[in-house]
Design brief:
Layout lengths: L4 E8 L2 H4 L7 E6 L4 E7 L3 H9 L4 E6 L23
Antiparallel strand pairs: 1-3, 1-4, 2-3
Length: 87
């Protein structure tokens, strides 16, 4: 039903030209102050798309986001210490 997506952080030198990244994937956030773009692309075609994006003149660096690899289920293995700090 949902396609698997991969996130990328793309550091750019020209923010006006960075708006054109929309045709490569879905742009999630543009930082005007720090000059980076957060975008998501289809995971199956991610390598081919990033080869094309890397060739653009205004792209300085591309980093892959590891957000979907971070563990998000937490367990409470540590006992509650709040009772020791009571008044």
């Amino acid at each position: 039903m949902f396609q698997e997506r991969t996130g990328y952080i793309i550091w750019v030198s020209d923010m006006k030209a960075a708006r054109n990244l929309d045709k490569y994937g879905s742009v999630h956030y543009l930082s005007k102050r720090m000059h980076y773009v957060v975008m998501y692309v289809n995971a199956e075609r991610a390598e081919d798309i990033m080869k094309n994006v890397r060739k653009l003149s205004y792209v300085r660096k591309i980093e892959r986001s590891y957000r979907n690899e971070i563990k998000t289920e937490y367990t409470k293995d540590v006992p509650d210490k709040t009772q020791y700090y009571g008044l």
